Amino acid sequence: MPSPTRSTDLIEMFAERAIYFLFGGVVCLIVWFILWHWRGSGSYDALSHIFLLFGVILVVSSLWGMMQIRTVKFHHVKCPFCNTVNDLTDAPTEDFHCVKCSRMIPIENGEVMSVSQVQCGYCQTLNYYSAKTEILICEECDHEIPISQDEEGRPTKSIPKAFKITDDDALYSLVLTEPGKNSEEMIATLQQMLALNRNQVKDILEGLPATLLTGINRRKAEMLQAQLSIHGATAEISAMEF
Ligand SMILES: [Zn+2]
Ligand SMILES: [Zn+2]
């Protein structure tokens, strides 16, 4: 059985086996009955005993097999793509295909990993990826969709929901308009993003709106905007004019 095992597959296997046993058992009992019914003097012998024995064993095995169906465990795993519940006999240890949408459900430590959405820049179809995704190919048009990665090469979660690939060479500025609620996290993020010290960042936050970066491409601007939005901040992207 492939791991993980689906509960329905196991039930099917038990049921199938029970039916075979029952059928074999009934045949044996019919033979035994015929032998017993037409017994002449001495013809009801060891042979019919064997049929009776096999018949009873097979019927009992069949009943036992049916009872086993009730012991099949159900471990519900919700597909992160289509929300269909997949029933497994145990917690999954490796990725498996969703029974409904056939997408590979990413598993880490027995748990379903969270997935993010990304819009294909060629055909606008929504695609999904997880931290396990190395190369993302659009489900619809087979183009590769670039996903941004952190230092370890894993896709970051900060990609905007509808991240579009644009072929524009224009440069943009990122302007912070709302600082968001959690100022400490925000200060840390900005420190990292802008390579400034704490006081410089605080100065920026006091004089909003403030231009954070200029001369960056759209993709970078959108990534940083999404990173800021995680902390509740609002930043606007505007095209630079020359
Ligand atoms: Zn699914
Ligand atoms: Zn596509």
What's the arrangement of secondary structure elements?
Blueprint: H1 7-37, H2 46-69, E1 75-78, E2 85-88, E3 96-97, E4 104-105, E5 107-108, E6 111-112, E7 116-119, E8 126-129, E9 136-137, E10 144-145, E11 172-178, H3 183-194, H4 198-206, E12 210-216, H5 218-230, E13 234-239
Antiparallel strand pairs: 1-2, 3-4, 5-6, 7-8, 9-10, 11-12, 11-13
Helix pairs in contact: 1-2, 3-4
Bound molecules: zinc ion (2 copies).
The site of one zinc ion (ZN) has 8 residues, from loops.
Keywords:
20% strand
Overview of the molecule:
This protein has 5 helices and 13 strands. The chain has 242 residues and is α+β, with helices and mostly antiparallel strands. The chain folds into 4 domains: 7-69; 73-113; 114-165, no CATH class; 172-239, Ribosomal protein L7/L12, C-terminal domain/Adaptor protein ClpS (Ribosomal Protein L30, Chain: A), CATH 3.30.1390. The strands form 6 sheets. A 3-stranded antiparallel sheet has the order 12-11-13, covered by helices on one side. Strands 1-2 form a two-stranded antiparallel ribbon. Strands 3-4 form a two-stranded antiparallel ribbon. The site of one zinc ion (ZN) has 8 residues, from loops.
Strand tally is: 13
* Ends apart, CA distance between termini: 65 Å
Number of helices: 5
* SS content category: alpha+beta
Side by side, the strands of the main sheet go 12-11-13
Give the SSE string.
Answer: HHEEEEEEEEEEEHHEHE
CATH topology of the largest domain: Ribosomal Protein L30, Chain: A
Bound molecules: zinc ion
Taking pLDDT < 50 over at least 5 consecutive residues as the criterion, the unreliable ranges are 157-167
Number of structurally distinct domains: 4
Indicate the overall shape. rod-shaped
CATH class of the largest domain: Alpha Beta
Radius of gyration: 32 Å
Largest sheet: 3 strands, antiparallel
